[in-house]
Amino acid sequence: MNSKQKTPKKSELPATDVREFRVLLKEFLEEEDRQGRVWSSAQWGVYAFYDYDGEPIYVGQTNERLRTRIRRHLTNQRTDAVAMRILDIFEVAEVEIWPLWEYEGVTKKEDPEAFAAAQDHLNQTEYTAYLDAIKKSRYNAILNEKIPPVSERCSLPASLRGKLISDHVRTEREHPDIRIARRAETISRLAAVARERGEVSAGLWRALVVQAVRLTYLSAQRLAYIEGRPEPKPSSIAMPDLVGSVLQESSSTVDLDSEADGDEPNLETGGENDQL
């Protein structure tokens, strides 16, 4: 008589590095501030992702709860940025969040004016974090498909930043040969999305160029190391000449994207039931 094999738990199915990633993400999402509030439980806020070099790669905002939004990106992979291969989860080594606690419970239905004010401040916070990311980036550009709404700079609230990759996983993943191969694969997938969809935003093409620059620089670093030369200078990258302005969308781009977005499926729906 054959004994029935016990069904494994869903949490046991992922590969070891994925499980470790989710453990560290869960720990980050459960961090509390000095007032006992869970940082990621803020309804309104801004977040940013960083790669193995500490290079900012993506900035976003949410008014549905930070933890929900981050989970959609990093575990459920149900956001446009991930589904269209713009953001590669493999490259996300750190995350930072800026909660806006003062807008807890604010909804458009109950108080339209307060909601509009909160949204304006959220846009300011996102754009400020975005500008800071551009300034910190050696490439002077990140992977956002859509540039955040242009807003006045503001003072950023207190933030929490944490690592999502264990030391031994980092040792393996951050090897340049692995990163170069992975980044080339990401570019191929993103280009395939553009080809198969046909009508895609100008921002997607901009993200493709930025990824190509990231691949080129990483490959140039590797070559310089092999030949015993100094690393290439970031100043050798003329990003504005390649992609135009990364500080605001051009009016023609906005018009084109508005037409293209009409037929695209909404990949960013869901609720608090998203699971790690």
TrEMBL record:
Residues covered by region (Disordered): 229-276
Biased composition regions of type Acidic residues, renumbered to the chain: 256-266
Domain GIY-YIG stretches: 42-141
SUPFAM superfamilies: GIY-YIG endonuclease
CDD domains (UniProt xref): GIY-YIG_SF
Coiled coil: none
A family per Pfam: GIY-YIG
Name of the protein this chain belongs to: GIY-YIG catalytic domain-containing protein
